[in-house]
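Methods — Computational structure assignment.
A single polypeptide chain was analysed. Its primary sequence is given first, followed by the predicted tertiary structure written as structure tokens.
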Amino acid sequence: MSDDYVDYAAWGVAFFRSAVSAERVLAGINVLAGQPIDVGPLGVGPGRVVKIRATGAIGQAVGARVGEDPVSFRIELPVTLEFAIDLGVDTQRFVADIDVPLVLTARARRDLAIVLDVTPPNAQQVVVRVQAQGVRASITKRAANVEGELQRFVASYVARELDKPYVVAARTIDVSGAIDKAITTLGPRAPQAEEMTSDLPTALEAEIREHETLFTDDTLTP
């Protein structure tokens, strides 16, 4: 047999590892890069006196293969947010750098599909670094409240997104179907980043309103 040939089992392993490369996984995730986050200003607390504004963006994901059997990847998705809490008498500002860890595992399904299982982080695994801007902001416990709120929000938001039908479909590679399509046409379908992030501001607004007491404690007096 020619040295160019291998048995079916070896070919299958090589194909699987090539098809699900770190570069391809990151390329899919990075359609989110640069997507803006713009929430507020929201009135919260008694009389809706306290106003909250959150702006930011999703950054470029980084990651690498961490396992071969099963093929798995560790991905870090960065998010940067700026929070402004207008207390009426002054405004407290915070900058949050957030790292969202994701574990992706490639599974081989009997119908010749490759399924990417994604393990979302729990709140404690989401890394949030909050930096207060200004003396008053730096001494308030609100910085800790903002950090905990962002951990909880990001973890729950990611978990909800992963269960949405279009995300589940995007995580399934129909190998047999792809071969059939390749016979008549070439070229990947461009991912639609907008449909993956369009409801992020709405979800963050709902989360802020649900836990608004974290931002309004001891803020109604100078």
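Note: The chain has one domain: 21-216.
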